[in-house]
């Protein structure tokens, strides 16, 4: 339970003591067949195991629409297409959902789209992340260029963070309006993640040994960074629970644990597998 985590695991990690746990082999309880390479998945944020209709997740698959799957049966519930102005379907690369579960957001190449979860089919709206340059100006316009590799919604403000392999991180309103651009990261962005309890936005890059943390009250420069070994272009993910950030790495199959309340210092690490 969450309370047992906070009282035992959190205190052990935060104090720098290691937790010794026996690894258990995970057993698949349901499987889906999207049909092609899967780029991203997103759980329905208001899921509750005792309410079957809330148990679902979405997947973004190459050359397929976004698909909503039943988490108990693996049955396809709905499909959501992102169409261009000519009516052709576009590939979705990243997904996230509004905290209230009302809207599904999709990241594409230099484009963000939104769907009403209750209305499968075409997108409600989509916006280009690279605004057209005025004919009277030669200066580049602010925006997010390249493939949008990651989206995440702040559960408090409903701001959407978008990170691209082009090396840009931006904040958008839930209607798709550009709010601000963050300081330019070094390298292609592979994940963005809000840690609302700490007023932070975390950002990880490909082939970068740092996860940068921005204070949501000012975006001029990262507040601090977390050191995690990442020597390849593969997408290494991380997640936050309470004030702790858990991240994979490319070094010795280790999972690194950081305390965000203490400036992101590493408080523990353990080996996830022996392969």
Architecture blueprint of SSEs:
Blueprint: H1 2-14, E1 38-43, E2 56-61, E3 66-70, E4 76-81, E5 94-97, E6 103-108, E7 111-116, E8 121-122, E9 125-128, E10 148-153, E11 160-164, E12 169-172, E13 178-181, E14 189-195, E15 200-205, E16 210-215, E17 224-227, E18 238-241, E19 244-247, E20 254-259, E21 265-271
Parallel strand pairs: 4-8
Antiparallel strand pairs: 1-2, 2-3, 3-4, 5-6, 6-7, 7-9, 10-11, 11-12, 12-13, 14-15, 15-16, 16-17, 18-19, 19-20, 20-21
Structure write-up:
- By secondary structure, this protein is mostly beta strands.
- 5% of the residues lie in helices and 39% in strands.
- The protein is built from one helix and 21 strands.
- The chain has one helix spanning 2-14; strands spanning 38-43, 56-61, 66-70, 76-81, 94-97, 103-108, 111-116, 121-122, 125-128, 148-153, 160-164, 169-172, 178-181, 189-195, 200-205, 210-215, 224-227, 238-241, 244-247, 254-259, 265-271.
- It has a five-stranded mixed beta sheet with strand order 1-2-3-4-8, with no helix packed on it.
- β11 and β12 (169-172) form a beta hairpin.
- The longest helix has 13 residues, at 2-14.
- The two termini are 30 Å apart.
- The model is unreliable at 1-7 (pLDDT under 50).
